[in-house]
Amino acid sequence: MTGPAHPSLREIADRGIAFALIARDDTTVELLTGDVVDVDLLADIPLTDASGTPREVLALVPFRQVRERGFECHDDGAPLRCLIVRERTALPRDEALAQLPTEPVALQDAGFDIADEEYAGIVRRVIADEIGRGEGANFVIRRDFTAGVSTDAATAALTWFRALLEHERGAYWTFAVVTPGHVAVGASPEAHVSARDGVVTMNPISGTFRHPAGGATAETLTEFLRSTKETEELFMVVDEELKMMSAVCSDGGRITGPHLKEMSRLTHTEYVLRGRSRLDPRDILRETMFAPTVTGSPMQNACTVITRHETTPRGYYSGVAALFTPRLTLAAGEATHDLDAPILIRTAYLQDGRLRVPVGATLVRHSDPYGEVGETHGKAAGVLGAIGAVPRDAAAEAAAVAAPDADVIDEDAPAPAPRRLADDPSIAELLASRNGRLAEFWLNPQGSDGPAPFAGRSALVVDAEDRFTTMLAHQLRHLGLDVRIAPWDEVTDAQIDDAELLVSGPGPGDPRDESSPRIRRMREVVARRRESGRPILAVCLSHQILADTFGIDLAPLDAPHQGLQKSVDVFGMPASIGFYNTFTARVPAGTTSAGAAEIAADAAGDVYALRGPGFASVQGHLESILSRDGMTTLQRLVEQALTPIEG
Fold it and tell me: Could you please report the per-residue DSSP string of 32-62?
């Protein structure tokens, strides 16, 4: 409840009360106080009291919770910390600022825990050993800026929170969470997931433009927006978050954007994804752990790669701060709470007198090692500059404020709004042009548009550890199929035999690597289904495995096709398709068949698709936002696979 009187922020800090300060707009600071409870699992977050009455809870969710999904991590035991809100107070922003300390917090022995050259070496290894071996499309590897702090933790938290309020802009949440033994203060630009009135929203942000001295201009931003690397990086994380949306939303999710996220030292590009769900918000949070913008894709393998290349635990970095607020009105079957959960990035942590600011760079096939080193410096400086730990760019702060008429000064007028580069017509046009490359299926509302061609039919999708299968299943349902998904290590031989249509899915790794239990099982799945003569559609990794059964060679590509859009000929029809492969099936140039399989290949012999009696396959991801002709091609291939075998 909000009371008419409340202790000052300084009094709360001096008493040692657990509290949180959250600014989600430009006018109000929310003060939450209450009791701290640490729990083991997301399902244990105490959203109701002993009598079943809903209550508000702010949870700090550490990265180690990915274990709930069976993913790897360095387990540091960071608690899933819950602040059970007993009192909520809305403070006017100016009143909050007046109560916050201004004296800078001194740092000692400040610097990165990993030297620049060492981090550049990690970047090279990830590109060569992980992306180059087909382990995924992109990976985020972090380093930490650390320093000693002698100021007491609560005072440091209040000081840094004030500095962020005054000097950072464009944040989704600006916050300070002070609990026993631990402080987190940040200005997160990114809402990972929210659920309000049954509408789930995700906000993938990727691509980082570091402002030059004096601030960003339309001219300097234009070069960034035209970068192939930055554009593809954003498309890849949108694909990855659509996988999550398709898992939690009945309508799969629709994307809008792109937009600019403009901050004090950095500008990012972003999309917004929305869909409807009736899931408990804790389940939504579990199914979306964690954002690909801070892990990579595909998600499960990204966690494995992070464990290989980061030698220390992440703590709360790349986790979320999740605010569960009781719904005021409820309809039948609705969840009892709304959810608002920003990603824990651009955040400073203070524990046992040590400051830690973790930052990461998204590594893709185009990455320049020293460019990624510079990106981590820029992200750290964004936090450190805002809190006054490093010098601020005063010229940039001044340039960020729009002055409508520099010759007319009205001292009584309100402060001018920050200048938005997104309002520049040339910038808006560049952003809008990106959608010309994307699939209309994901850009448009996905209501019924006529009779589904495969109504009354069913399919089983086998997931080989790439949740592109959730998007693929959504598209198959849109075509009328009743679809179930089974993980590769749980699908039974009986399920393989009984499925009306078996869709053998994509996954990371080398299709020739029979030392991998996952690859061996996917080979068994494809072989068993082919021997039965029953319909099968094989995608990406499974396409390569199917090609191998026809004696077609498998080989690594000269350069990975991770997040690459290509126009290819699929059995006489041109199709714009997104590719995420490092390996390919390859035939001599001009080859058009292998046994019973008809081959679609390029001039070099790389095989894009196979078809024959009762089977079809495709190397690309028809479900990707990069596949403008994905739905049309998918329908053609499903029709082919379901064609009865004569005789």
Answer: EEEEEEEESSGGGS--B-TT--B--EEEEE-
Q: How far apart are CA 172 and CA 468, in angstroms?
A: 28
Above 50 in pLDDT, residue 407? no
d(CA 619, CA 539): 6
Q: What is the pTM of this model?
A: 0.85
CA angle 465, 273, 79 (to 5 degrees): 60
Report the alpha-carbon distance of residue 340 to residue 281 in Å, rounded: 9
> Stretch 316-338: mean pLDDT, rounded?
83
Domains in the chain, please, with CATH?
A: 9-391+419-435 (3.60.120.10), 446-641 (3.40.50.880)
Q: Which residues are catalytic?
A: 540, 621, 623
Identify whether the C-beta of residue 175 lies closer than 8 Å to the C-beta of residue 185: yes
At residue 482, the 3 state secondary structure works out as strand
Given this model, what pLDDT does residue 392 score?
59
pLDDT in tens, 96-110: 999 999 888 999 999
For 184-195, the three-class secondary structure string (H helix, E strand, C coil) is EEEEECCEEEEE
Which of 284, 280, 247 lies closest to 474, judged by CA?
247
Are the beta carbons of 131 and 365 closer than 8 angstroms?
A: yes
* pLDDT tens-digit readout, 478-494: 999 999 999 999 999 99
Amino acid 37 reads V
Question: Does residue 395 register a pLDDT over 90?
Answer: no
Asked if pLDDT for residue 71 goes beyond 90, the answer is yes
Do the Cβ atoms of 622 and 631 come closer than 8 Å?
A: yes
Which secondary structure element, helix H or strand E, spans residue 623, and what is its range?
none
pLDDT at 14: 84
Q: Where are the alpha helices (DSSP H) in 462-592?
A: 468-478, 493-498, 517-532, 541-549
Do residues 636 and 577 touch, judged by C-beta distance below 8 A? no
